[in-house]
Amino acid sequence: MKDIARSNRYHIGLFGRRNVGKSTLLNALSGQDVSIVSDVAGTTTDTVWKNIELPGIGAAVIGDTAGFDDIGELGSMRNKRTQKTSEQVDMALILVNGTPDKIDLELKWIESLNNADIPIIIVLTKCDEHEDVHNVLSAWKSLLKQDIIAVSAKEKKGIDDLLNKMSSLYKIDDDLEDITYSLVKKGDIVVLVMPQDAQAPKGRLIQPQVVTLRNILDKHALPLCCAPEELPQMLDNLKNPPSLIITDSQVFAQVKALTPKETKLTSFSVLMARHKGDIESFLQGAKALMTLPDNAKILIAEACSHIPQNEDIGRIKLPKMLKKKFGDELQIDIVSGNDFPEDLDKYNLIIHCGACMFNRRHVLSRIRKAKSQNIPITNYGIAIAAMTGILDNVSIS
Fold it and tell me: d(Cα 332, Cα 138) in Å, to the nearest integer?
């Protein structure tokens, strides 16, 4: 369980004012001193993530955020980090404490999380400090119009009630968890074409290859792996054509030329487009890509931060491909990690990576942001298939 990548874990965020007890609750849930606990307001300055296995949920990661009532210039920066964290979470715990006074921020956050369709649990912390917990709970309930769970992380009271509530709200789409969905069934022969370029860590496979391979094995299908240059030999050695070929998008055109007519073709990035994002939005973005003006401005967004290599797909190969297709007047900006602009108005199109380092909620938040500003968005694999003229031959579903 400890080896499960964070991007494949269920994300839970702890939100609330400064010194409300977020760090103490995280430590209580994890059974470890993960976050620094202090009576000084504003101790947590950036989100602290802790991998954890929770009953009824399984592999999860809990984020302890800075107080959303932080003030000053640094406080404003911390608030922005807390807001970015909220874009990643699958469930939110909003912590409150004391007798309710000002509740404007709590109501604002409840509204924002509800608009994003994120399940919310309101938690009254430090209930051991209240002489009459029932009256305090009633006051909060009447103002927030929400059920509330009272906990004392210090005395470990209410923790089981909270865990049970979290388990009851937990939900995943099993169909979306199946990365190869209807494309692979038991007994299918599936060829995975995996270039081992400078971006591939020595001795290891990259994340999309790993999760796809595991998914195929779980379905009791028959995966066969090769580099692009060995694909002709692989196909010649098979008695019958494979049911499906999954390739790295960088060699889409090369692999398409070798794919038997009865064999389906897709790419790791196309699979990730459905698994992590919104495939229909990405397909609409591909249509916009093919009608770009000569002086269009494109944003390329990578989920991971790394030092660019000569064979880097997002920073080197994709920009070259775009300029070859649409001309040198094309303007391209590249961002990585959490550095996704709030204002997208200057762009004609966004091309996102497969987002193997993000959870699905994070990718969907970016798609919503693009849609709200009427900016089309697609992803690497679908964009490359469109530019090479093979998108109609790629198996999407």
Answer: 54
Burial of 152 per CB tally in 10 Å (0-12, 13-18, 19+): buried
Residue pair 200/250 in contact (Cβ under 8 Å)? The answer is no
Give the whole-angstrom CA distance, residue 380 versus residue 373: 21
Pair 52, 6: CB distance under 8 Å: no
| Angle (CA) 371 372 377, round 5° | 20
DSSP string, 243-256: SEEEE-GGGHHHHH
**CA-closest candidate to residue 287, choices 352, 393, 378:** 378
pLDDT at 42: 47
- For helices 279-289 and 380-387, what crossing angle results, to 10°? 40
Report the distance separating Cα 293 and Cα 69, nearest Å: 44
Q: What percent of the chain has pLDDT over 90?
A: 68
DSSP 8-state assignment for residue 157:
B
- ∠ Cα 159 163 168 (to 5°): 150
How far apart CA 356 and CA 302 sit, in angstroms, is 10
d(CA 380, CA 391): 12
CA dist 121 and 138 (Å) reads 16
Q: How many whole angstroms separate alpha carbon 57 and alpha carbon 10?
A: 8
Amino acid, res. 117: D
- What one-character-per-residue DSSP string does 217-237 give? HHTT-EEEEE-GGGHHHHHHT
111-119's contacts with Cβ under 8 Å and 24+ in sequence apart are 112/86, 113/86, 116/86, 116/87, 116/365, 116/368, 118/86, 118/89, 118/90, 118/91, 118/92, 118/361, 119/90, 119/91, 119/92, 119/169, 119/171
Q: What are phi and psi of 350, to 5 degrees?
A: -115, 135
- Say whether 41 sits in a helix, a strand or coil: coil
Residue pLDDT, tens place only, 162-214: 999 999 999 887 767 899 999 999 999 999 999 876 555 566 788 889 999 99
Chain mean position to CA 157: 33
Q: Reduce the DSSP state of residue 394 to 3 states and report it.
A: coil
DSSP 341-370: -S--TT-SEEEE---TTS-HHHHHHHHHHH
